[in-house]
Amino acid sequence: MLRTILGTSLMIFTATGAFCQSAAPSPSFEVASIHVSQIGKAGGEGSRRENIQFTPDTVTMRNVSLKSAIQWAYHVMDYQVSGPDWLQSERYDIVAKSASAVTEKQLRSMAQTLLAERFKVEFHRVNKEFAAYALLVAKNGPKFKDSETEGESSMQPDQKRMIVTVQRMPLSRLVEMLSNVFRAPVVDMTELKGKYDVTLDLAKYVGDMQASAGGAPPDILSIISVGLQQELGLKLEARKVPLDLLIIDHAEKAPVEN
């Protein structure tokens, strides 16, 4: 049972004010197509499975809720977006292309413009204190080095062996993964800004922790916390942290026509 839970967690691990007017025009995609998702409309198995992928010039979202699209565009977590229930229930297919290759940050900014124009999304921000986990560098420092290769981040999860190997990963991605697994805010306070090659092997700690607990299965948080400290030289610390919430004031179910 524990292996099943850990395996599921590894899969999750791999799966992350109103609009202000400014003098400069908002960055936008050259072309974008938005349709109601037929998968979501049909219901049944897979009808709630979402997929978001991007390249330097394209963002492709399949069967996504508007809430998930907003999360991606503003680079926030699920608990940071609040609005009507239909934001999670209605599903869309979105394909948007820029005129040329741009950075991920620019793609997300273009997605913000797209959502404002086509879904008429308006929101305001509220700052609220949350019980969260701070990701910190442990006493003896990090146990990983800067990646020596170029390219996008890549991940190789081994669900059966409870190992995940990542190349060229910024710690912001690790924070997103941990937030998804714990379903709670995780905030990066390491001040590590590079991209890293990381291998996290959780299996080796399960037996020892289970034995020390008298045979009771350890919880996921404990396993991952020990793994982070022993394998990566990082630690999680419970704290209260202020986070921005996006409160959706207005959005339309039917997007402006393509």
Describe this structure in words.
It is a single chain. This protein is an alpha+beta fold. 31% of the residues lie in helices and 33% in strands. It folds into two domains: 20-120, no CATH class; 129-241, no CATH class. It contains eight helices and eleven strands.
Blueprint (SSEs and pairs):
Elements lengths: L1 H13 L16 E6 L1 H5 L8 E5 L2 E8 H9 L6 E2 L3 H4 L1 E7 L6 H15 L3 E16 L16 E5 L4 E8 H12 L3 E3 L6 E7 L1 H10 L7 H13 L1 E17 L8
Parallel strand pairs: 4-11, 6-9
Antiparallel strand pairs: 1-5, 2-3, 3-5, 6-11, 7-8, 8-10
Helix pairs in contact: 1-6, 3-5
Sheet-strand content, in percent, reads 25-35%
Count of separate DSSP helical elements: 8
How many E-type strands? 11
State the low-pLDDT regions, or none. Answer: 16-23
Describe the sheet with the most strands.
4 strands, antiparallel
By secondary-structure content and strand pairing, the structural class works out as alpha+beta
The end-to-end span amounts to: 47 Å
Please, what is the average pLDDT?
84
Instruction: Please give the radius of gyration in angstroms.
Output: 20 Å
- Give the neighbour order of strands across the main sheet: 1-5-3-2
Please give the share of residues in helix.
Answer: 25-40%
Question: What is the overall shape?
Answer: globular
Number of domains: 2
H/E topology pattern: HEHEEHEHEHEEEHEEHHE
